[in-house]
Specification:
17 helices, 12 strands, binds ligand G3I, 38% helix, Glycosyltransferase, Immunoglobulin-like, alpha+beta, 4-stranded antiparallel sheet, binds ligand 9MR
């Protein structure tokens, strides 16, 4: 019997406008590998047992009735059924009182590979400055936009500085790179955590990553597909470093464009304000990249390392130069209010010491103890924790143990949450923010790092729980990755998908996900009002392009998803990390 009040059933019929609500079994819509933990959540408190049959009707498992628990994030009662004893590849179905429930549950060797590749290919779709041709982009082929070969340095022209001298505005070339999200901006802060995560995937699973090909034009010779794609953004990032080593915050127009195609967005683009956070984020990821690309292109590696050290020096000389968004700039700020720069210094120092072994960086790192915050674009602490915890030979046992303690304490807290919550989700209450799906994916990555360090499968199971939620084991019964699962977002806040004449959105994009911020509900956004009544964080989502707060896509959300899906897939088919 479904313990649902009328109002919430009505709520579902309103909010989940494109899908019907019912107490269906909720599970990873892409399925499981034979060795995965296989959990199915069914809202409600039905006392009847469930039978698992294969698709030919043969009973393979009787599931006892589990206890009922409540999930505060959705206000639901649920029961969690464990199908992990099913190890044989196949297609399975659930029956209760002889009635078929839900959709088929798939067990196969590589259920996540296509989704992983699509979430990596999406970065190709985000390329600025190039046309996407049909053989690679399929029906989402488009013309080039934003060549960014003539970008004005903010404050050097009459528009952005009324008192600017009559000399010509200062113009730089800042081409290539990825559009940040649903908008056409290119942002250093968000690029840094994104590039870090994608390069970490290559660092941890190089052999598996080399097997992944996703049909895009090769740009650079003799690079694996993942590193070829990431270099497109690294080269843009390098263009944002000024002669003095400082790094501009972003390259954008002054205001967000309308819902138009890239080629139609021809407003002036500006390189906006050098600052300490952008310079440190740049320094850390350039140092990391110099190590990863060294064996493929020593000259490129050396160029990035030099840039990294120069940016770090600029940051040390300008430790209080935080980004403040000017009045006439209304694109994304990526500037958390209470910024202190400590986490960015920690991140940059750990990567620079790993790349150079210079004492200066180790000394700075030791004087800046780890915290347990992040990882998100506003706090990179965990990126330093990962590096140091996994490299005792480089950083010494004492520092590495300190990092490992932070990592394991957080992993144990997430595993406890995942193993006890009514949706089996490793998620803290404070993760329900803008981009909550990326918090789930990043929590999964923390659990994977704990698995790397201990080989304790319970951490791998925790990471699986995170992926299961993103791909369907959630109250809205939606796979949050466009084009994957039997129900996925159709109307993401993504200008290329909104402005093309293709019904389906660009595939392989992870939408931001539910939370109660509702920053997109306002006069101009009357369509978003349909989810205004949502009063539980896990339900506050609407699959409409109006909702940039819940249904946008972003490079720093796709990267942890791609890492999580790729790493789990790699491990389950026998690849070990590093
Ligand atoms: O960190 C605080 C937390 O302490 C507090 O409890 C919570 C509730 O008030 O707010 C948290 O801050 C939130 C922050 O994200 C971190 O999660 C802010 O409310 C929220 O407004 C902020 O949203 C950011 C959003 O831009 C608006 O600034 C998103 O993280 C960020 O991903 C998003 O990024 C945009 C770019 O600016 C432009 N391109 C699209 C991209 C994705 O939407
Ligand atoms: O499209 C913009 C999206 O990328 C940002 O995340 C969001 C919040 O900064 O803003 C979106 O742009 C909207 C603007 O903020 C208000 N007018 C409508 C714009 C398009 O939805």
């Amino acid at each position: 019997m479904i313990q649902k009040t009328l109002s919430s059933a009505l709520f579902f019929s309103l909010v989940a406008s494109s899908f019907s609500f019912s107490a269906m079994p909720l599970f990873n819509q892409l399925g499981f590998t034979p060795e995965s933990e296989k959990q199915v959540v069914i809202p409600g408190n039905d006392a009847n047992p469930i039978e698992v049959r294969d698709v030919f009707g043969k009973k393979v498992l009787d599931l006892k009735v589990p206890y009922v628990s409540e999930w505060p994030a959705s206000g639901e009662e649920t029961q969690v059924f464990d199908l992990s004893s099913i190890k044989k590849e196949g297609t399975y179905r659930l029956f209760r009182n002889g009635e078929y429930l839900g959709n088929p549950i798939i067990v196969s060797k590589i259920p996540y590979e296509e989704a992983a590749k699509a979430s990596l290919k999406w970065f190709y779709y985000q390329r600025a400055g190039v046309a996407l041709e049909y053989p690679y982009a399929g029906k989402w082929a488009r013309a080039a936009g934003h060549p960014d070969d003539k970008v004005i340095v903010y404050g050097t022209d009459k528009v952005t500085n009324k008192k600017a001298p009559n000399t010509k505005p200062r113009i730089i070339s800042s081409a290539k790179g990825w559009y940040d999200a649903g908008d056409y901006g290119k942002y250093i802060v968000n690029s840094a955590i994104t590039v870090y995560t994608l390069l970490a995937l290559y660092e941890h699973f190089p052999a598996y990553a080399d097997t992944l090909h996703w049909n895009i034009p090769v740009i650079y010779k003799n690079l694996p597909p993942l590193l070829d794609e990431v270099r497109w953004n690294l080269e843009w990032m390098l263009s944002t470093q000024d002669k003095d080593g400082g790094v501009f915050h972003k390259v954008t127009t002054l205001k967000f464009s309308g819902s138009i195609a890239p080629e139609k967005d021809t407003d002036t683009r500006y390189a906006i304000i050098k600052n300490v956070v952008a310079s440190l984020d740049f320094a850390g990821v350039m140092a990391q990249a110099s190590v990863v690309y060294k064996k493929f292109d020593p000259a490129f590696s050396e160029k990035m390392l030099k840039a990294a050290e120069k940016a770090y020096a600029w940051a040390k000389a300008n430790p209080k130069a935080f980004y403040k968004q000017p009045e006439d700039v209304q694109t994304g700020s990526y500037a958390p209010g209470n910024e202190d720069g400590k986490d960015e210094f920690r991140f940059a120092a750990s990567e620079l010491y790993n790349a150079t072994k210079k004492d200066l960086y180790l000394k700075d790192l030791k004087n800046n103890p780890f915290t347990a915050n992040g990882p998100w674009w506003g706090d990179l602490n965990f990126l330093a924790v990962y590096r140091v915890a996994l490299s005792p030979a480089v950083f010494g046992d004492s520092l590495s143990q300190a990092a490992k303690k932070i990592l394991m304490d957080e992993a144990n807290s997430l595993r406890a949450e995942g193993d006890s919550s009514a949706y089996r989700l490793p998620m803290h209450t404070w993760n329900w923010n803008w981009g909550s799906n990326s918090a789930v994916a990043n929590n999964g990555i923390i659990l994977l790092h704990a698995y790397y360090l201990t080989k304790d499968k319970s951490y791998l199971d925790g990471a699986q729980q995170a992926l299961d939620y993103l791909l369907g084991k959630n109250p809205l019964e939606i796979s949050y990755l466009t084009g994957f699962g039997y129900r996925s977002p159709k109307n993401p806040h993504h200008r290329p998908s909104e402005s093309d004449f293709v019904d389906e959105p660009v595939p392989g994009m992870l939408v931001g996900g539910p939370h109660l911020g509702k920053q997109d509900i306002g006069e101009e956004n009357w369509k978003c009002k349909d989810y205004a009544s949502a009063n539980k964080p896990a339900l506050a989502y609407i699959d409409h392009q109006c909702s940039y707060a819940t249904n946008e896509v972003a490079i720093n959300w796709n990267a942890p998803f791609a890492y999580l899906a790729s790493a789990l897939q790699a491990i389950y088919i026998g690849y070990n990390a590093f």
